[in-house]
Each structure stands twice: as C-alpha cells, then as structure tokens.
Amino acid sequence: MSRLRDAFAGALAGLVGGVVFGAAMQTQGMVGEIAGLLGSSSMGVGLGLHLLVSVLVGASFGALFRYQPRGFTAAISAGVLYGLLWWLLGPLTLMPLLQGDGPAWSLAGASAAFPSLIGHLFYGGVTGLSFFVFASLDRRYLYSEQKRPDRKPTRVVVLGGGFAGIKAAQTLEKRFNRDTDVEVTVVSKSNYLLFTPMLTEVAAGASEPSHISPPLRALLDWAEVVRAEVDDIDPDNRTVHLRAHLTSESRTLPYDELIVALGSVYSDRGVPGVRDHAFSFKTLQDAIDLRNHVIATLEWADAERDETVRRRLLNFVAVGGGYSGVEIIAELRDMVRGLLRFYPNIPADEPHFMLVHSRDRLMPEISAGLADYALRKLEGRGIEFILGHYVDEVSATEVRLDDGRTFATETAIWSAGNAPNPLIKALGVELGPSGALPTDDTMRVTGLEHVWAIGDAADVPDMYQDGGPAPKTAQHAERQGTQVADNVVASLRGKPLSPFKFRTIGMLVPLGHRTAIADVRGLHFSGLFAWLMWRGIYLAKLPGLEKKVRVLFDWGLELFFPRDIVLTRDPGDPASPDPNIEPASPDPSSTSSEPVSAKGAS
Amino acid sequence: MSDLPTEPNVNTDQTDQSEAPFRDLFWRKLRLGVLAGIVGGLVFGASMLQTGTLPTIAGIVRADSAFVGFVVHMVVAVIVGGVFGLLLLYQRPGVGETLFWGLSYGTFWWFLGPLTLLPLFLGQGLNWNLVAAQQAFASFVGHVIYGASTALTLLVVERWRHHDAPHLHPWPLLGGAVAGVLAAWILGGAFAAQNGFAALVGVAEQGGTMLRLLFGAVLGLTFALLYPQPSERAGVGLVRGTVYGFLGWLVGVLSIIPLIRQGRLAWTLTEAQERVGALLGLLLLGALTALLYRWIVGASRALFGAEVRGREAEGVGTQGLRAIARGVPAGLVGGVLFTVVMVQLDLLPNVAGLVGSEDRLIGLAVHLAVATLIGMSYGVLFRAQSVEIGSALGWGVSYGFFWWLLGALTLLPALLGSGPTWSAAAAADAFGSLVGHLAYGAGLGVTFYLLEIRYSPWWISHREYRRQKAEQHKREVLTAAPALWGQMVVIALTLPLLLGRV
After folding, report:
1. Is A152 part of the contact surface with chain B (CB cutoff 8 Å)?
2. Looking at this predicted complex, what is its ipTM?
3. Is pLDDT at B202 greater than 70 in this prediction?
C-alpha cells in the first residue's frame, strides 16, 4: 500500500524533474528529437511525451527506492543513479531502437548523447529531492502512521508441530512472507519435528536422537513458536488456551484461523498392563528409553547366572504387525546381534525375537507379495511370528495371548495402537468412527467456522478411496499441510478453496540388515535395492541440511565403528531396588528387580 | 590482540546527532559546512591559480581579474559548503561516509557549476556538450577534490569541537597497510603488462615495484583510517574501495606525484588521458585493497574477537551455500540481459576465444558460465545487503562496473593474449561491453534480492521482522551507500567519454 503511495509521490516528482529537464532540453533543441519518435515534429507532442516518460520513470523510482525519513541526501543520490541508468536505457537503447537504428552502445553513440546524460543526471537529482519532499508531505499530512486505522494483524494458529503442522506453517510463511499483517503461531508440545521414519534408527542406536529431530524454530523463518500444552480450544470465542508449564497460568491465544494438526497418541486399546509394562514407540523419548532398556537388559543378562531369567531377559516381543512393529523388531534384532560381541557371557542362541499380530498377515496396507517377502525374510533370520492372536495382558515379566499362552519377557513393545489426540474433543464436534475430526474435502472441520484439521487427527476425504478417510501417513500429512495453508490463504483473501487431492506415492519399510520392501505406485521392490531407496529417499526427506549431514555421518561411522552401548539414561540398577523409589514403599513393584521407571508412556 | 575492536561503528555512533533539536542541528551543520567550504575553496582556489581559470569565474560579475575571480570563487565555495553541511544533516558521521558524500557532491557540482550555471551566468546558454565538458576536465578534478577536502574539514572540525578525538587503533591500520601491499603485489602482473606502475603514473622510471607497493600501502592505510571497524559485507568494501581508488588517482597520480616530480598539477585533459591506465589500475587496486582489508579485519575479529555479535540464524557455511545457490539464477538472469548486448555488438566470438574457439554458441556457453560464477561471488559478497530493489540495483550495478574493469579490461585481454589494455582507447572501445556489464549487474542485483526476500533471516515474529528491515534500510540510507552507487555510475559513464574521445 505504501509502495503505491511512494509511486504516486514519485510520479509527481518525476513531473517536476521532467519540467526542469524539459526546459533545459528546449534550449538544446532536443525536444524535437523526442517528438520524432512518434513521427511528429510538433514541440507540444515532444514535450508531452517527454513529460509522460518522466512521470512514469519517477513513479518507478518512488516504488523501487521508497521513502525513508531523513533520507533526502540519499534520495538525490539514488535519483542521480536512477537517472543515469535511464540514460543508458533511454537515449542509448530505446530511442535508437524506436527510430529503427541499432542501440547506440558505443563511444560515438554515447558521446553524441552526452548532453542528454547531463540532463538525465539533473532529472534524477531533482526527481529524487522532489520525491523526498512529496513523500514526506504525504506522510505528514495525508498518511501518517497515527492516522491509519489500528488494524490488528490476522493471526493463524497451527496446533501441533508434526509433519502436517510444520508443513502448513512453512507454506503459510511462504505465502504471507511479504504480508506483514499476518502472524503465524505454531503451538507444539515438543520443540522439534520428530522424523518418525527414522525413529527405529534411534531405538536401535544407529542414529543420535537429536539428529533426526530438527528444532521447530530452525525450520520456521518468522512464524512464532510456542512450546506449550494445549489446555482447551474454544471455537466459539476463537481462542486456544495454553499452558507453557505445569506450574504456569493458562494463557489465551486468540486466532482468526485455526489449523488443528495435533496428530495421534499412543493407545493401549484397553489391554491391561500395557500402560505400565510395555514400551510405547511414538516419541523420541520412547526410542531413547527403549535403547537404554535393551542395553541395560543385555548388561544384566551378561551377568545373570540363572538361565531362566536370562532367557526372559533376552526375549524381545513386539505387539502389532504394522509397519512400525515389523520395523522395530527387525532393527532390534540387528542391534542385539551386533552388540553381542561386547557380551561374551550371552550364548549366541539365547536372544529371541518375536512379533504378535492379530491378523493373518503382516502389514495389511501393503501388497500380499511384499508382506510375504518380509515374513519369509525375517523368519529366516530367526524372528518368530505369531499371527492371528491378540495380546490379552502384559505384565512386568510376561506377555499373555488370547489363547492363554504366555511368553516370559522383559521387553514388550507396544505398536498395536494409535488414536487421534484426545484434545480434539475440546472442539465439541462429533468425531468420526476412528475418533478423528471429520472434515470436508477442503479440510474445514465439519460444522465449525475458521477451524481446519489435517494429519492423523483428521479424517480428510480421499478422492482416490471413494471419499473414505485418507491414509494417516507422513506423505499425506505433508500434502494436507501445504493444501490447507493454501486454502487458509484463499479463504482470507476471499478466493475459492481447492480440495485435497493426493494419491499415495508409495510405502517403504526397512527390514534391517540392508533389506527393505518398497511399493512405489504399484511397483514392488525388495532387498538391498529397496533398502538403498529407503535410505536415499528418507535422507532427502529429512528436513534441514544440517540434520541430513549428521545422519549421513552417523551412517558412515557405522561402517567403521560398532554401535555405542553407553547407557545415556540408566533405567536403574537391576540388582537393587530403584533408587528413586523409597525402599519402604508398600508397592510390591518397588522390591522387584524390574526397571519400572523406563516403561510406559511418558 | 585483546584491544582489537569488536563492536562495529563505535566511533561513528558516538556523535549521532539525530536526537538534537532540529534548529540547533541546522545551524550547527550550516556553520560546519561554511567553515569546511572555506577550506575546500582555498584548496580548489590554489589549484585554479595554477591552472589559470580564476578570471573565467570573475566573468560572473563582469570582471576579469584573478583576484575578483578568487573572491567570487570563495563566496561560491562557502555557499556550496553550507549546503553540503545541510545535506549531511542526518547522515551518519563516519569518516568514510562523509568523504564519499563529499566526492559525490563535488562531482555533482561540476555538472551543475561549470557546465550549467556558470555559462548561464556568462550568458552563453547551457554548456551541455562533450567538448565543453572535456575542456572543463581540470575543473572536474578540482570539484571532486573540493568535495573531498570540504568533507574532511567538516569532519575534523566537528570531531575537534566535540572533543571527540579519533580512536586510532593500530591493528586496523596495520591491516589496511598489509591489505594494500598485498593487493598491489597481487595486481603486479597486471601492472607489469601495462609497462609497469611507474610508467602508468607518469614516472619515467622502469620497474617501480617499490612505488607500487608504497602506493598500495598508503591507499590501504588511509582506507583503514576511513573505516577503522568495517562491519558490512565485503562487497560494500569492494565498492567503496573502487571509488576510493578513483580518489587515489585524482589525488595521487594527477596531483601529488606530478607536484613532486614537476612541481605542478597534471589536471589537463591530455595529461589525464595519458594516465588512464593508472586510473583503471587504481580502481582495481582500491577494490582489491578494500576487499582484503575487510577480510583481514573479519578474520582477526573471528579469531581474536571476544564478543559474539548479531543473531545469525545459521552457520556461516550454510548461509554461504545459500547465498551461492541464490547467486546462480541471479547470475544467469544478469547474463541473459548481457547476452542481448553481446549479440547486438557481436562480442560472443570474442568470449569464445577464452576456450580457443570462435563459435558464437560456445561463446554464449562460456559467457553464461562466467555470468553464473560472478553471480555466485555476488551472493557471497553482498549477502543480506540489499533491503529494497533500489539498493539491490545500486549494489548490482556497482558490482557490474567492477567486473567491467576486472573482466573486460583486464582478465579477458590477458587471457586472450592481446597486449596492454589499460588505456583510454581500450576503455573507449569497450564502452558497449560496459553497458552490458551494467545491465548484467542490474539484473543480478535485483534477481538476487528477489530470491533473498523469499527468506527472512530472523527467528522473530513477522512484525518484528518488518521493523528490523525498516531499521536496516534507514541505516543504509544514512550511510554513504547511495553516494557510492551514484559515484560509481558517474565514473563508469562519464570518464570513458571524457577521456576516451581524443
């Protein structure tokens, strides 16, 4: 807006400069030359054209160089610069071209146009100074900051810092980069974006935790980041209630448009014992805990003389045969196998890995052929699969199935359930069958104004699945993020919204030990090639150059050095009660040797 | 090394008068300007005594005695000085800043005075033609030196009246001298190819290595005096250095050396034309000196400085890579603009000569490759420097001119194996290429700026970002950056005309 005003002031200034220049040209007899451009020899035509060009050049000067308080000297100087550039562009280039000659880009041509050079120089100087005068008068009497209506900035709030939320915020930043009346605020519980495809790498000790989690503040350029817990969402008053810390007061954040991308949380599906005794696998903390627990278990097993206890310690059970369950058990096996050389007292045949899955085949989302391949491959590596059975109960030392079988284990990994973040209930709309927010195809939450939902917490209709909810994967979440940001922009600018339209590109599941399976638009890959694809694609997808380099280094180092077995967070001394728990506590678990503190969802 | 200054612009900020009441400020600057104008007028007047132009000025009051001319001249000098003081009302009072405004101001008055107002007063009508301009060349030198001495006087008096003794740190001065010697040494080959430095500056001796290094040292040392604590990007230094090299030519080559050798000034057109080689050499020497000086200061600051300044969002490496990556498309856009000129003037076979070919397509490929490389260097040197399209234009055009000097007049002929090129004739022949280089710079700077604004460098909220951007713009406007751009273009466009036409 103010650029336009500067352009007007510049146009007026260009008129002044043009009059001065024109008067000088008159004495030099140059006006007729300009009239000649239009095939006329009239003085009036020449002057008119001259003034018109002067005004246009002046307007562009105002728009390009802008008004700055106190900058009159700079305005003159910049005007001289601009005038001289127009000497190059006008008398040396455009005028000869219009007259049908080639550009006068030679010393002879320039020498002939020398009078005009001086004229342009003064034109620029006069225009610059007049521009400053006009623009400051304008600022002073017509358009001062104080006289402007106090416009409050439009605030777009993004709840959630996952793939969907961050993509939305980044797209908003791009779209509103020059629109300073829009503020974007991202509210997230964690201050980093968790790159979940590499979470198993962390659990297996192949990558450092911080290397797969770029900080939100680094990913976003100017959007505000608030690390806080969402207490409540009030769509009627268009506010979100936040709490930066357990001890702090709840804070109200108003919004004009709200994008809900709160993602999913881990769900125990009502199975007893899961919350207390099984490892969840959802957050960075989960991965760190799991890695520490496995190493601590190996340490204990190495020192344990009782074979029963040792077998229990070395039995690793994953529950749930989706991508993450298969991935984690395969990676875990690799890790334990690789670390055994540090633990000479553990017989090589004792570590045992098993996966319990409720359906008849693994990974129902992927084609049967690939799932079979994975099953065969992993069974060949000694992983036991129990298909078609549910887990009924998880206790500190065993997992019980629905047919009554029990397996002694210290390590049960729960990857059988995710549920949309329960915070979305605060919106007060009826949730879909999966517990997610129902939206229309432009990702507006059904029944609410100015609220949008994307990612795992939303059921966005998928055009390619007859309007059923789109798969809850990162690739969908990212596209939804981009699209919802575009729709928010469109809605703020009163333009039509566009529907979400994205077909799954493919699926990549690493199976450990340089094998993976991949399904890319119906093309199937497996083995080493798919594994290389996995590494290449996800490395490219990992946000931020710095993190890419770090992960690449992690992978490179793995070729030379064994995985680290440092207990970065000791889950507790297995031979004595947890020091954090009072010995006199009536809780029986405190006297058991089971390391409680590391388990369960945080 | 612990006393190395780490905070930028400590000196220049100390006397920030922007808070003083307008009336006080106005009169103070006016008085300062008048006083400085007297000194500048005396310097200019003394030179006019020698060149014998004073009676012409007396013509304004219909007299023709040298004394009357001197009086008229002094009156004008005082008025013009007063206006200069007022122009600097809010400008940042750094040494270098004021000096460059002075140069620009003096140049402007040459156009306004001898070419415009003086003939009008004498009743001859406007004197806007090349012959008259060439005849007034001595006056051109005089006006620029008037501007410089007025600026320096104003500065010294102001400092002295405010008991603000300049803080002379020895390290930057040493850094400047080292940079100058280093630059002179690096350019040694180029000078040697033009019959040596001594021949270029009109000293008939052979060799002149010592003279060259001494010149570099003086240039570097005095430049360090202007900017004891440079904090801008190296590219800004490069532009300043180029303009400073121009001043070095006027003061050193046209004035001091002839004064010592022959006891008189060498301000006539013919003498200046003979020394065009030295001008081109000194423009490059100045640019290189300032660049090296900035890097030396930057390196010593990074190594020995105690304080971490600024909030850089990313590591230097990432920012550099980003800047280089943005420089690629920017350089290509500029290169395409330049191609128009190249095709028009049929310069492509010439460029193809770099790889031993005469094919126009190969020439185009080489040209675009070079344009891209230069674009990348622009990214590194001018990263986060342009805050508005106007300033992008200014920096880009200045950088384009620098590459006309370095590329078209120095490296290209050297690589093609043709002889000396730092001559008035060569510069005149390359005028078309100059137009191309300026167009290249404009395209480069503006494209780079447009790429850069897509990314905002601060981890702050949007409104804060805008405030900071406005602040930066204000700072730039009050520095001598606009004067530098203007002066660069005036040098680029006027000098080939004045000196190239025999």
Report:
1. no
2. 0.88
3. yes
Q: What's the Cα-to-Cα distance from A106 to each of A85, A111, A480, rounded to whole Å?
A: 16, 8, 57
Q: What is the pLDDT of residues A482-513, one digit of tens each?
A: 999 999 999 998 899 999 988 888 888 999 88
pTM > 0.90: yes or no: no
Q: Are A264 and A418 a contacting pair, CB within 8 Å?
A: yes
Residue type, A401: L
Which residues lie closer than 8 Å to A502 by C-beta, 6 or more apart?
A462, A464, A470, A475, A476, A479, A480, A483
**How far is the C-alpha of A66 from the C-alpha of A54, rounded, in Å?**
17
Q: For B25, phi and psi rounded to 5 degrees?
A: -60, -45
- Give the per-residue pLDDT at A26: 79
Band (B316; pLDDT cuts 50, 70, 90): low
> How far from A180 is each of A6, A222, A451, B474, B493, CA to CA, in Å?
18, 10, 22, 18, 39
For residue A541, the distance in angstroms to the closest alpha carbon of chain B comes to 18
Closest to B404 in 3D by CA, of B462, B327, B497, B491 = B491
Q: Which residues of B touch A84 (CB under 8 A)?
A: 486, 489-490, 493
Rounded mean pLDDT, B389-411: 91
A119–B128 CB contact, under 8 Å: yes
Closest C-alpha among A600, A572, A265 to residue A412: A600
Contact (Cβ atoms closer than 8 angstroms) between residue A143 and residue A41: no
Pairwise CA distance, residues A167 & A144, whole Å:
38
Instruction: State how far residue B214 is from chain A, nearest Cα, in angstroms.
Output: 34
Angle between helices B481-500 and A72-89 (to 10 degrees): 40
How far is Cα A83 from Cα A17, in angstroms, rounded to an integer?
A: 10
Amino acid letter, B238: L
Residues of chain A with pLDDT under 70: 1, 143-151, 178-180, 572-602
Separation between Cα atoms, residue A303 and residue B38, nearest integer Å? 95
Q: How far is CA B271 from CA A391, A456, B259, B278, in A?
A: 99, 80, 13, 12
* B489/A81 CB distance under 8 A: yes
Residue that wins the pLDDT comparison between B500 and B390: B390
Q: What gap in Å lies between CA A206 and CA B181, rounded to an integer?
A: 53
pLDDT: is B256 or B304 the higher one? Answer: B256
Write out the two tokens for A284. 């960075």
